[in-house]
Specification:
Protein name: C-terminal binding protein
Organism: Craurococcus roseus
Order of helices and strands: EHEHEHEHEHHHEHEHEHEHEHEEH
CATH superfamily of the largest domain: NAD(P)-binding Rossmann-like Domain
Pfam families: 2-Hacid_dh_C
Oligomer: single chain
Mean pLDDT: 91
Distance between the termini: 35 Å
Number of domains: 2
Keywords: Oxidoreductase
Number of helices: 13
Structural class: alpha/beta
Domain D-isomer specific 2-hydroxyacid dehydrogenase NAD-binding: 115-292
């Protein structure tokens, strides 16, 4: 029997190349650890994971019930940026670090956000349909009411890693940029050529509103009807963050009644959406299927990082990315500090 037991839901993966845990196991080599698959239902998962040393979370919600059943778990690791599938509060109460991969797909998501901005602004999907349907002469008139991109205002709701990467891409297009994020210092905003603003200022001033808030209970439906009513009738709303941060019914109403001009979305409130979701048939909506982070390096990078985080904690060290760092103050984990880095455990 292996020294460390890592339990993960069976058959739950975003894997491009199929199953297996070769990438995760690279960092775990030498630790005498095994990754065991467990049933996807909560009762079955609890039965299999009760004596686990680590949980590799994917595909199912790691609820308070699951967490409270764990007898000796040292870490719950996610191979994603979002941590909304784990009850972090329950894990914190049990002293279990929850790790994620917050910086692995930043460039890809920023590329996709910029792609959606440009596609929404220049009505790319509509133009493609016109060209394919033989409506060749309709394309140019449809764009004659749209101003040039240079000089327009891009507003960010939340200014984390992805938003900062988008700002770097948007600057050469000549966009003025503002951001609302009460947790980010003004100096950091100015370093990216972005002006601080209130949420109301972002909504009323922006020609593009880019949503980047994480999926946490406190920001559920952060953007609702009253916010869409504040936006310009010509505005494009972009979301590459999380669907539940937006009241989707309010967004649909805003698009139907012309409060805003267009929505370019990689995420929806329910995924996959119901076949009768109005967004699927609306001409003023550009959609992609929650693919912003995908690239050739997606599987390899995120899986290796998840394995590395589990290996660190099982070795008695601090993880690199802990979303509930308060637990580290009360554990016996050693301080792990990479060469050349002088910051804390969540650097």
């Amino acid at each position: 029997m292996a020294r460390f037991k890592i339990v993960t839901p069976a058959g739950a993966s975003f894997s491009v190349h199929g199953g297996g845990y070769a990438y995760e196991s690279e960092a775990l080599e030498g630790l005498d650890a095994e990754i065991a698959e467990a049933p996807m239902d909560e009762a079955g998962f609890i039965a299999a994971a009760r004596d686990a040393d680590a949980i590799y979370a994917k595909g199912i919600a790691i609820t308070k019930g699951i967490i409270d059943s764990l007898e000796k778990c040292r870490v719950i690791a996610l191979a994603s940026v979002g941590v909304d599938s784990v009850d972090v509060k329950a894990a914190t109460a049990r002293g279990i670090p929850v790790t994620n991969v917050p910086d692995t797909f930043i460039e890809e998501v920023a590329d996709h956000a910029m792609c959606l901005l440009l596609a929404g602004f220049r009505r790319l999907v509509e133009q493609d349909r016109m060209a394919r349907d033989g409506r060749w002469r309709e394309g140019r008139p449809a764009l004659l009411t749209i101003p040039r991109l240079m000089g327009q205002t891009l507003g960010f709701i939340s200014f984390g890693r992805v938003a900062r990467a988008v700002a770097r891409r948007a600057a050469p297009f000549g966009l003025r940029m503002v951001a609302y994020d009460p947790f980010v210092e003004e100096m950091l905003l100015s370093e990216h050529g972005v002006q601080p603003a209130t949420l109301s200022e972002v909504l009323t001033q922006s020609d593009f509103v880019s949503m980047h808030a994480p999926a946490r209970p406190e920001v559920h439906h952060m953007v609702k009807e009253q916010h869409f009513r504040q936006m310009k009738p010509s505005a494009v709303f972009i979301n590459t963050g999380r669907g539940p941060t937006v009241d989707e019914a309010a967004l649909i109403k805003a698009l139907q009644e012309g409060w805003i001009a267009h929505a370019a979305l990689d995420v929806l409130e329910t995924e996959p959406p119901s076949h009768n979701n109005p967004l699927l048939s609306m001409q003023n909506v550009t959609l992609t299927a929650h693919v912003a982070s995908a690239s050739a390096r997606f599987d390899e990078a995120r899986k290796r990082r998840a394995g590395h985080e589990m290996a660190l904690v099982l070795s008695g060290k601090w993880p690199m990315s802990c979303v509930n760092p308060a637990v580290l103050q009360s554990t016996t984990l050693q301080r792990w500090q990479p060469i050349g880095m002088g910051r804390g455990p969540n650097s």
